[in-house]
Here is the input.
Amino acid sequence: MIEASAAVPVPAAPAEVYAALSDLDGATWLPGVRRLRRVGGARGGTGARYEVEARMLGRELRGVLVCREAVEPERIVMALEDGLDLTIEARVTAAAAASSRVTLTARYSVGGGLAARAVERASAAAARREVEHALERFAARWDGRRDGGVV
Here is the structure.
């Protein structure tokens, strides 16, 4: 299993940041995601289901992204239901006055065996870059207030 993680400061309170993170109807900032469409469940909460089109590991992927956990205002966990074993977790922590830190982690596995492990290792750097870019896209909504970058 590969884990790619990055963090970014956001000049907004955790509740505001969490609200943006949990609004999956417009979450095309997620790593590799090109299109999302809600197909069931509560909007922005545990059980929400989204048909997703993404490009990951050089492949076009389609599947159902499910919100597995939503703990306001701290964490949201999403996972692909079929195909690639992929989990995306976004955490929000309070930082300095009226600001937050968002940590985005993607964990994935392409299967068992030596070939799968080689593919995972070869894709780890690209996965980290995609997670960093995803956070940059997410944090861009606060560009007028933003100070700092992806860490």
